[in-house]
């Protein structure tokens, strides 16, 4: 008889985490072995437990789920990771794929589709649930896209705010100017901005 799929849920919204536990508790082949609120709690749990799957919220206080996913897939590639998020956007889905995740499920997804998606991921397929009205629903309000930025990209923004050129930034960070220029382009793309002037205004408005 096949063992249950062992699952860890990483989400700082307790109500959602509890709801996910209830959804999976109805199934004989799923076993939730832990709930974590952040990356520190997760890595502590991983010292003692070996899950088959991690359900990972993209945005948590103090934890960037996309960066955490990248780290997990580098160090523990055998563990499947499904990203969960309140943000329904093609941009978020694409960033999830780039992070190495095995799947993406919006938090508005119904229980039946959640369970179906998890099973398909555990069977070796990558499942990224298409956001509702994904062709048009690509913009988020209130600067929400800032959570997509990596630590390095946030660092680059600080130098841009100080008026550093790409060359000067490269010298400060001991990286190539090409790398800095690439980061700048990616930042504008992620934040859906068109110029450094817009970026600087955005950065001050959103405390970046």
Automatic annotation (TrEMBL):
User: What keywords does the record list, in alphabetical order?
Assistant: DNA-binding, Phosphoprotein
Domain of life where this protein originates? Bacteria
* One GO BP: regulation of DNA-templated transcription
Looking at the keywords, is Hydrolase present?
A: no
Annotated Pfam families? GerE, Response_reg
Identify the SMART domains for this entry: HTH_LUXR (SM00421), REC (SM00448)
Record-annotated HTH luxR-type domain positions: 142-207
**Residues with the 4-aspartylphosphate modification:** 57
The record's section on InterPro entries has: CheY-like_superfamily, EvgA-like, NreC/VraR/RcsB-like_REC, Sig_transdc_resp-reg_C-effctor, Sig_transdc_resp-reg_receiver, Tscrpt_reg_LuxR_C
Q: State whether keyword DNA-binding applies.
A: yes
- Return one GO MF term: DNA binding
Q: Locate the Response regulatory domain: which residues?
A: 6-122
The name this protein carries in UniProt is: Response regulator
